[in-house]
Design goal:
Elements: H1 2-24, H2 36-57, E1 62-73, E2 77-89, H3 103-108, H4 119-128, H5 138-142, E3 157-167, E4 170-179, E5 187-194, E6 200-207, E7 222-230, E8 233-243, E9 254-262, H6 295-316, H7 328-341, E10 353-357, E11 364-367, E12 370-374, H8 375-380, H9 384-399, H10 421-424, H11 431-446, H12 454-466, H13 493-497, E13 519-521, E14 528-530
Parallel strand pairs: 10-12
Antiparallel strand pairs: 1-2, 1-9, 3-4, 4-5, 5-6, 6-7, 7-8, 8-9, 11-12, 13-14
């Protein structure tokens, strides 16, 4: 009897120990042994991860995260019900890892110190933007830049070969990866390794919790992408996060988010000082034949000086795209400016320019004779007439003399750290100025070639109002003006009144596009480029997705040194001669616009919803038969 009790006790202890050990082992299928070639590529990938971390430590990129909470919808599948926005510039050299980060902390499941030391840098702009109530940790999203910065090796992980796969023109080997022993923050998912140097170019999955149990309460599922930004250098460019548990008949809340990285070539000032001096490159001699300057000309020159200082500062901070001759701004936006300036006989002392604010927030403003339009606003505008409505209001601000504070003409007033850019530069207009500009903008539109398409443009504002309550973060400007008043009505309310009623079942009615529909940002030099993606018509109401976050998908390419600095292309519809300094509107007459080539892959304004391309914007219809005919580039005024 005594022997049986001892044996039973020993059995129970043994079983408990086995159960405890089993909990540490993640639930995963038995893996097959890698071939020598596959194993060699894994070893390369492990080594290249260490190289990537060293490269990141030398960079100070901007990191933008936009989150939308969603709920199920019968007609639209899911709709956003709330959103949050975060933008940070992070100096990884200062505190890439917290010194207190140890394997013991990770194994015990306690909150580790990953990114803890750089938390102030990560959240600096978030606080500056008034987003202290940001409920999702920005560090959690940024962690998805890396597989496992401290333990990605054969000692901690098991690799299982899946197949070969092309991502764009880059051939990759696909492996499933899981930790040998469960632990807080271990990667669990799939990786894509390019076959030349062994860089991990994509990884998809999640991180494990302290045990092999469900880790959803600790981490999100994500899809992380990297790009070959310079010879031999692959860096993170985007992360898509999705958590959606659909339970029919119940109100469940999901989450979709995108994190984007850019500004890798930006340099921070000396570590000991956070002041930034403004460097003006490519200075242009604007001297005139006349020897003297009159009071009006001097006043305008003073405003221009403030404008140049602010634009240069914002470019240096990575918030405004640098000049890109022949880029989207020249091909599309500048032509729309001409289409409004000429028929309204607007005589500006200097040529009007357009620049891209690189944030996802929907906003616009003017700095002197420069119109700033955010990337998020451009991406969501469905057609040329909608773009023209935004440009018209900013033209009105310029014509009516609504300029920024001229104190920025003093260069020293712009010597402050990048994290304070939103706090220090006030670029928004007063409510009175916005109201006046909206009235004048309607006059410009009525006199332009867009007058017969204004109801279509008004649909955008109707859709903006329809989702205003759910998308507060998207509609909260960071530098300039919102398209909406404080009460949620648009400044261009007269345009909204001209629009037909929103109809989800009318597949020809595209009121607004998903985010990421038109342009992409080069993660290295911050220049913007127009997407070259096929255009598909929506097959149902769920394909419309106005203002929504969608998955990202990149057709990767290897960095080509020969094509890195292509000759600047001439604008598609540039003025025959530069506008005269006298402001003669005749000097801004446009030339005839060449017809668009019948290339179904070229994406230009005025089209239906784009398909998933360099950055996914919509779900494509089945087959190329659904593709819409290519749209014309911005039309010229006859």
């Amino acid at each position: 009897m005594t022997f049986r009790k001892i044996s039973l006790t020993f059995l129970i202890i043994t079983m408990c120990a086995a159960c405890a050990y089993a909990k540490k082992e993640p639930k995963y299928e038995q893996t097959h042994q890698l071939t020598p070639e596959q194993a060699a590529l894994v070893v390369k990938a492990i080594a290249r991860e260490k190289v990537l971390i060293k490269n990141i430590q030398q960079r100070t990129p901007l990191v933008e995260t936009y989150i939308q909470d969603t709920r199920p919808d019968v007609k639209l599948y899911q709709v956003p019900i709330d959103d949050q926005y975060s933008l940070s510039r992070v100096d990884f050299a200062k505190s890439f890892f917290d010194k207190t980060y140890t394997e013991t902390q990770r194994a015990t499941g306690k909150k580790h110190g990953f990114f803890k030391g750089s938390f102030q840098a990560i959240t600096g702009l978030t606080k500056a933007l008034g987003l202290e109530r940001f409920t999702y940790s920005p560090t959690g999203f940024m962690q998805m830049m890396f597989l496992d910065p401290t333990g990605f090796d054969n000692q901690h992980y098991v690799f299982s070969y899946v197949r070969r796969e092309f991502l764009g023109s880059v051939r990759t080997w696909v492996f499933d990866v899981h930790p040998k022993v469960a632990g807080m923050g271990r990667f669990y998912g799939r990786i894509w390794v390019e076959d030349q140097d062994g860089n991990v170019v994509r990884f998809n999955g999640t991180y494990t919790g302290p045990t092999s149990e469900d880790s959803s309460k600790y981490y999100f599922h994500f899809d992380s992408w990297r790009m070959n930004v310079q010879p031999g250098i692959w860096l993170p460019v985007a992360v898509y996060v999705e958590e959606t548990t659909r339970i029919e008949g119940e109100k469940t809340v999901g989450l979709k988010a995108q994190t984007h990285f850019w500004g890798y070539s930006l340099k921070l000032p000396t570590r000991d000082s956070e002041n930034v001096s403004v460097k003006v490159d490519d200075a242009v001699d604007n001297s005139q034949d006349s020897q003297d300057v009159g009071p009006l000309q001097a006043s305008r020159a003073w405003v221009t000086q403030a404008e140049n200082n602010v634009i240069d500062r914002l470019v240096e901070a990575g918030l405004v795209a640098p000049l890109n001759p022949g880029g989207y701004e020249n091909k599309v936006l500048d032509q729309i400016v001409i289409n409004l300036v000429v028929p309204n006989n607007l005589a500006f002392s200097d040529q009007i320019h357009t620049r891209i604010l690189l944030s996802t927030t929907v906003e616009t403003t003017t700095v002197g004779n420069t119109i700033l339009i955010s990337k998020g606003l451009i991406d969501s505008l469905p057609n040329e007439e909608a773009i023209a409505s935004v440009v018209a209001m900013e033209l009105a601000h310029i014509a009516m003399g609504h300029h920024i504070d001229t104190r920025y003409a003093f260069n020293d007033r712009l010597m402050f750290p990048d994290t304070a850019s939103f706090q220090r530069i006030n670029m928004y207009h007063s409510d009175h100025d916005n109201a006046d500009a909206a009235k004048r903008a309607m006059e410009y539109l009525q006199n332009s070639m867009y007058k017969d398409k204004l109801p279509s443009a008004g649909l955008y504002y109707a859709q903006l109002v329809d989702r205003e309550k759910a998308l507060k973060g998207l509609n909260t400007p960071k530098l300039g003006d919102s398209l909406l008043k404080a009460d949620g009505t648009p400044w261009m309310a007269d345009l909204q009144k001209m629009a037909p009623k929103l109809n989800w079942d009318d597949l020809t009615q595209m009121a607004a596009l998903p985010l990421g529909s038109w342009i992409k940002t080069d993660p290295w030099d911050d220049k913007v480029h127009q997407l070259n993606a096929k255009i598909y018509a929506p097959m149902n109401a769920r394909d419309k997705m106005p203002f929504e976050v969608t998955p990202v998908f990149y057709k990767l390419q290897r960095y080509d040194v020969a094509k890195a600095e292509p000759p600047a292309a001439a604008p598609a519809a540039a003025p025959a001669t530069p506008p005269a300094a006298s402001g003669d509107p005749a000097a801004q007459q446009p030339t005839t616009q060449p017809a668009a080539t019948p290339d179904a892959t070229q994406q230009t304004p005025g089209t239906q919803q784009p398909a998933t391309g360099d950055a996914a914007a919509a779900q494509p219809a089945t087959g190329d038969a659904a593709a819409q005919p290519p749209a014309q580039a911005p039309t010229t005024q006859q």
